[in-house]
Amino acid sequence: MPQIDTSKVSRFDQHGRRHVVHVLRTGVQRTIRCETCGWRRGAQFLPWLKAEEHLAEAHQATVDPTAA
Ligand SMILES: [Zn+2]
Q: Which residues pair with 19 in a beta bridge?
């Protein structure tokens, strides 16, 4: 079983650039922060989903490097 890293979400865009959104735990709340543009927001539920949405919408980065 591959280990799933829940502390960040990374995606490649069509130019092969890697974009990373970090998932930071602050008590019960989670904060997600984009390494590329500095975007951040709180996300109590499914921060990884919100991170994926941001990567797709803001950076057109939809290629999952962990996908087979
Ligand atoms: Zn961003």
A: 11
Spell out the residues 6+ positions from residue 4 whose beta carbon is closer than 8 angstroms to its own.
66
16: in domain: yes
Cα(46) to ligand 1 centroid in Å equals 17
The total number of structural domains in the chain stands at: 1
pTM: predicted TM-score of the whole model, two decimal places: 0.85
pLDDT along the chain (68 residues), means of 10: 77 96 88 97 90 97 86
Q: Is residue 49 part of a domain?
A: yes
Could you tell me the distance, in angstroms and rounded to a whole number, from the CA of residue 27 to the centre of ligand 1? 24
